[in-house]
Amino acid sequence: MAKKAKIEARVLSQSILAEGIYDMWLETELAMDAHPGQFVGVYPANKATLLPRPISICEVDKEKSALRLVYRVVGSGTAEFALYQPGDIIMILGILGNGFPLEAAEGKRAVVMGGGIGVPPLLQTAKELSQKGTEVTAVMGYRNEETFLSDDFKKYAKMVIATEDGSVGTKGNVIDAMNENSVECDVILACGPMPMLRAIKQYAQDKGIKAYISLEERMACGVGACLGCVCKTKEADHHSHVHNARICTDGPVFDAEDVEI
Amino acid sequence: MAKKAKIEARVLSQSILAEGIYDMWLETELAMDAHPGQFVGVYPANKATLLPRPISICEVDKEKSALRLVYRVVGSGTAEFALYQPGDIIMILGILGNGFPLEAAEGKRAVVMGGGIGVPPLLQTAKELSQKGTEVTAVMGYRNEETFLSDDFKKYAKMVIATEDGSVGTKGNVIDAMNENSVECDVILACGPMPMLRAIKQYAQDKGIKAYISLEERMACGVGACLGCVCKTKEADHHSHVHNARICTDGPVFDAEDVEI
Amino acid sequence: MNTQVEIAGVEFKNPVMVGSGTFGSGVEYSEFVDLNKLGAVVTKGVANVPWPGNPVPRVTEVYGGMLNAIGLQNPGIDVFVERDLSFLKDYDTRVIVNVCGKSVEDYLEVVERLGDEKRVDMLEINVSCPNVKEGAIAFGQNKDALFDITSRIKKVAKQPVIMKLSPNVTSISEMAKAAEAAGADAISLINTITGMKIDIHRRKFALANKTGGMSGPAIKPVAVRMVYEASHAVNIPVIGMGGIASGDDAIEFIMAGATAVAVGAMNFHDPYTTMRVVEGIESYMRRYNVEDINDLRGCVE
Amino acid sequence: MNTQVEIAGVEFKNPVMVGSGTFGSGVEYSEFVDLNKLGAVVTKGVANVPWPGNPVPRVTEVYGGMLNAIGLQNPGIDVFVERDLSFLKDYDTRVIVNVCGKSVEDYLEVVERLGDEKRVDMLEINVSCPNVKEGAIAFGQNKDALFDITSRIKKVAKQPVIMKLSPNVTSISEMAKAAEAAGADAISLINTITGMKIDIHRRKFALANKTGGMSGPAIKPVAVRMVYEASHAVNIPVIGMGGIASGDDAIEFIMAGATAVAVGAMNFHDPYTTMRVVEGIESYMRRYNVEDINDLRGCVE
Ligand SMILES: Cc1cc2nc3c(=O)[nH]c(=O)nc-3n(C[C@H](O)[C@H](O)[C@H](O)COP(=O)(O)OP(=O)(O)OC[C@H]3O[C@@H](n4cnc5c(N)ncnc54)[C@H](O)[C@@H]3O)c2cc1C
Ligand SMILES: Cc1cc2nc3c(=O)[nH]c(=O)nc-3n(C[C@H](O)[C@H](O)[C@H](O)COP(=O)(O)OP(=O)(O)OC[C@H]3O[C@@H](n4cnc5c(N)ncnc54)[C@H](O)[C@@H]3O)c2cc1C
Ligand SMILES: Cc1cc2nc3c(=O)[nH]c(=O)nc-3n(C[C@H](O)[C@H](O)[C@H](O)COP(=O)(O)O)c2cc1C
Ligand SMILES: Cc1cc2nc3c(=O)[nH]c(=O)nc-3n(C[C@H](O)[C@H](O)[C@H](O)COP(=O)(O)O)c2cc1C
Ligand code: FES
Ligand code: FES
After folding, report:
1. B166: left (phi over 0), alpha (psi -120 to 50) or beta
2. Interchain CB contact of A49 with D (< 8 Å)
3. A48 at the B interface (CB within 8 A)?
4. How far, in Å, CA of A151 to CA of A159, rounded?
């Protein structure tokens, strides 16, 4: 893997996908080494806020040397990002994290599963899997009819939708949608809120299939140095020796069996 | 006088007058109440720097509701100001301070004297005096041939220049220039570095004339509340009762006789 | 919706006060804000006689805040009563007078002198100013000295007494307990944290006094922690301050255990800060259906 | 131009180190910077046995800085020696190992164990971590306890010993003097200042540990003041840290009296910070014709 770097990136475009959900393309050489499931740290210009904001890679365009980030405005950093205009220069740190193990899904019945702001990283995942000839089902959970990115997924995957309010697809969560649509699979690649990930871990265990889940935690360094972002692991991991894997470096994607969530 | 306010101002233009010296016009309703020798507090957008930067009013255009600020880049705040483009919205606090007592100079032989970045506030001073029919001589001290604003002064005053390196006018300081050009006067209105102000105070005392000088000090509030910006006064002043006048409110302009500098 | 709070029998229309020394006696900021909308005006520290304060530079900016070494310049109690208290007579807000001194006797003189001033609702005793050489902070950094001065002041004070604590201590709980044990009616904290800035180009201290007291958003996490610790150590009310810039910041201090809050250095950044804090508290309460501000006190888990 | 400094007989090619716990053992940041260009790598605190650290969330951002409550997670001395010290063997930089413990015996075990490790140039004893319940900070907030642990460590240590002091004390000078009197070869400061952040929307502490240690530019003025006070109280060298982000910041600490400096939390903001500090120091020296960095130490007036 290429060396990590903190470098300038140029905003190529910015648009709104749903209420509070933004879609930004960045031109950056980091794109050349980006794998699905990895993330970048985006630095707000606001000098009162010094830490990078971890944002997953939603899509990669290697020809344009571009990364797509889809993010929800939740605080001061993301609120600042939402103001960026094409041409703006920002600082990013990357490429961070391990990404999804595509090889574990290739040629198998693969499901990518996302919930809420966990949807974006699955897009590039579905894209690369489908480009490698794997048939992918995308099972995505949303709050309501604002099913952002679902048109993009349809290019690479069979699309199944769950919404909390039942306005589109299955009323309920992604597992409900799996069941309602009788989706069968061998491997799940997932990102979303913790309750969803717990349900997926249980589901995979019950069905005897593999699940790889992308976790989230507060981060400071993003590169594995500060030990801020750990999650409990079943086995003492090679780095910490105390059952604490670093989500930023050993993850964010883990075999669901390996982590205690 | 009108109420003070912290309000938005719109950058109308920005240009470079000399090395590191910038000239910015702002559109703001505060312009309507601005008197020569008063100042505004300009807030950097940088959230690490929260205090307003005191900058003197260089010129006022009441028709356009505009203020002209001329400033030297010395630190992070002024470096930020130098990047502003026409159309940018910034926050300013004003109008602050007392301003020059024009009535003390009207109809007399008036000299406005400025040194370095003390030159700008004298421009509006010369302009208003000349508009009121007073004949003004402007004696301005610069480092070198970059005699910024001198063309503006010529519109309202007889212009006498001193430069440290002798490249233009008298080689030396403003007092040297006064002497070399045999400038006679009844009252001096001045702003500039402390050694210059001390020399002017002495000069005025020796000649038995009045001098009003504009002082500078580190400020926090800019409105007289924090007691950060005091200067020693001969008499116990009405506010502090301890010989400490507040430069931001009781000044920045003082009768040279009244302050111990 | 109730925003009224009570401290030692005194009722405040809302919990928003100002930090002593950052608001004069209200005159200057009355050009920007309606003093009637404040819970209380807390005046600049006043001593028995006029104090000239420290040489300039007295203030300097630091990352997310400032240092000050005003040195408690004040015109003395006589001028203060005549001028500042008279000014405040016209306003419908509480008045808390901040008192400073070099010896216990200095403090007692001011406290006694203020006893019959009807306009004074409470006294705040500054034993924590880091910017004067004698007295002041010494009382605030030693729990026995704090106990002693507090009890002596309580003996003569006619108004309820708030002891203002210094953050420059190993254990804020111990100091809070000492104040409570000596009879203080409330405590306020934090005063400024001692800091220093050096101008590396001139190789000089940025402040003539070398050190100064740090305030502003940069100190807020330390202040919240100390308010939490202090309010869990004592049963008397706590007035919290340190970097408050918004209603959300005020709510944070209240959740940490403060009964009221004060806005200090941020007045300099934005003269309307107090009003934004008052409104911000109300809008938080509306958003989360909080009927009574007192329900939020200490509610963090 | 000389940037070399000496501490207790150990020479450093320049005064720029890293803050323990902010740089791992160098592996992660070696992707960004050339470790050979650092004065020293200071490792994350290591204990006699593996420590799991605190529950998450362990870090949170605050104005101009961050709070952390990692709780000294570490793999224990065995893994550390085998893995981290081996990694550092290939680099031409000094290695300072930061040691933590819950009891004096814990510390002694690690210190003894490291005695024969040739790769270890110095030991830094962390008696100031605010994020673990037992031990640690207790030693750093009581001068007798500090004296005791320092002298016991000095009896067994084969490498020179740096005592890392806590800023959460009333008098940093007293603590510095206690460390010196007990035989410390140097002191380093400041460790983090205890702070707290509350998530007002969830009414919960932002950190699982409730409090955390504050670091970053926001604490710099407090750090500079303490480095100034400590270095004027003792004759042993002082390593200064707290919010350093640039060469200018480093110069400020050196002028305050520090012999060397460390970059901590700002590594997280910019992984190249250490290099920018090294270059920034040199460019300051060039600009002002400073021949020897040691001439700047304590030069503020
Ligand atoms: C590996 C990873 C990938 C992520 N991918 C995405 C994505 O693709 N799209 C998206 O919208 N969000 C994503 N998030 C969450 C995103 O990082 C936060 O929403 C964002 O940092 C909030 O920043 P803020 O300044 O707006 O919020 P504030 O609350 O003001 O941030 C304050 C601090 O808390 C941190 N923080 C706040 N919320 C979170 C969170 N949920 N997770 C981690 N740190 C947080 C911030 O980084 C910052 O340091 C991801 C998080 C992780 C860990
Ligand atoms: C009444 C008054 C009028 C002024 N008018 C002008 C003017 O017309 N043009 C101009 O170029 N400059 C003027 N100055 C000086 C100007 O305020 C400073 O140069 C400016 O504040 C520097 O800000 P900075 O962020 O670039 O510097 P920094 O050094 O980064 O500022 C740090 C802090 O120090 C303060 N500060 C720094 N230098 C000074 C200074 N010389 N005086 C007061 N505060 C200072 C800043 O306001 C800020 O709070 C005036 C100062 C005063 C007091
Ligand atoms: C310029 C200035 C002057 C101050 N003067 C006093 C004072 O006279 N008495 C006092 O008790 N506190 C004084 N303080 C401390 C404040 O009241 C407050 O405790 C502190 O600044 C922390 O709050 P903040 O961060 O909101 O400013 C002063 C603070 C500043 C900034
Ligand atoms: C995430 C983190 C972990 C830390 N771990 C340690 C540690 O293990 N041992 C120690 O002595 N100091 C530790 N510190 C304190 C730093 O070394 C340093 O003293 C402090 O952060 C102040 O410097 P800064 O503001 O540059 O970060 C840690 C700091 C941070 C931010
Ligand atoms: S964020 Fe620092 S180790 Fe993961
Ligand atoms: S700057 Fe506050 S009184 Fe002048």
Report:
1. left
2. yes
3. yes
4. 9
**Mutual orientation of helices C172-181 and C143-156 as an angle, nearest 10°?**
30
As a whole number of angstroms, the distance between CA A30 and CA A2 comes to 9
Please tell me the distance from the alpha carbon of residue B93 to that of residue B221, in angstroms, as a whole number: 10
Q: From first to last of its 301 residues, what are the pLDDT tens digits of chain D?
A: 999 999 999 999 999 999 999 999 999 999 999 999 999 999 999 999 999 999 999 999 999 999 999 999 999 999 999 999 999 999 999 999 999 999 999 999 999 999 999 999 999 999 976 666 555 567 889 999 999 999 999 999 999 999 999 999 999 999 999 999 999 999 999 999 999 999 999 999 999 999 999 999 999 999 999 999 999 999 999 999 999 999 999 999 999 999 999 999 999 999 999 999 999 999 999 999 999 999 999 999 8
The 10s digit of each residue's pLDDT in A166-186 is 999 999 999 999 999 999 999
Torsion of CA D172, D264, B77, C245, to 10 degrees: -70
Q: Which atom of ligand 6 is nearest to the CA of B221?
A: 2
Question: Do A173 and A166 form a contact (C-beta atoms < 8 A)?
Answer: no
Best C28, C68, C81, C205 member to test B by mutation, with max B CBs in 10 Å, is: C28
Q: What is the distance in A from the centroid of ligand 4 to the CA of D241?
A: 9
Q: How remote is the CA of residue D171 from the centroid of ligand 3, in Å?
A: 21
Q: What is the pLDDT of residues A105-143, one digit of tens each?
A: 999 999 999 999 999 999 999 999 999 999 999 999 999
Cα separation, B219 vs C72, whole angstroms: 16
Q: Which of C17, C18, C22 to mutate to test the pocket of ligand 3 (most atoms within 8 A of CB)?
A: C22
The count of CB pairs under 8 A between chains A and B is 6
Chains touching B (at least 3 CB pairs under 8 A) are A, C
Answer yes or no: do B220 and C68 touch at CB < 8 A: yes
* Interface-testing mutation among C139, C207, C225, with chain D (most D C-beta atoms within 10 A): C225
D129 belongs to the catalytic site: yes
Cross-strand pairs, A192: none
- How open is the CA angle C79-C83-C87, to the nearest 5 degrees? 155
Interface C–D counts its CB contacts (< 8 A) at: 114
Residue C135 pLDDT exceeds 60: no
Residues in D 193-232 with any Cβ partner in A closer than 8 A: 216-217
Three-state SS string over chain B comes to: CCCCEEEEEEEEEEEEEECCEEEEEEECHHHHHCCCCCEEEEECCCCCCCCCEEEECCEEECCCCEEEEEEECCCHHHHHHCCCCCCCEEEEEEEECCCCCHHHCCCCCEEEEEEHHHCCHHHHHHHHHHHCCCCEEEEEEECCCCCCCHHHHHHHCEEEEEECCCCCCEECCHHHHHHHCCCCCCEEEEECCHHHHHHHHHHHHHHCCEEEEECCCCCCCCCCCCCCCEEEECCCCCCCCCCEEECCCCCCEEEHHHECC
The closest of D201, D193, D276 to D242, measured between CA atoms, is: D193
Q: Which ligand is nearest to the CA of D136?
A: 4
User: Chain D contact for C205, CB < 8 A?
Assistant: yes
CA distance A166 to chain D (A): 27
What string of pLDDT tens digits covers the 261 residues of chain A? 568 999 999 999 999 999 999 999 999 999 999 999 999 999 999 999 999 999 999 999 999 999 999 999 999 999 999 999 999 999 999 999 999 999 999 999 999 999 999 999 999 999 999 999 999 999 999 999 999 999 999 999 999 999 999 999 999 999 999 999 999 999 999 999 999 999 999 999 999 999 999 999 999 999 999 999 999 998 877 777 788 999 999 999 999 999 998
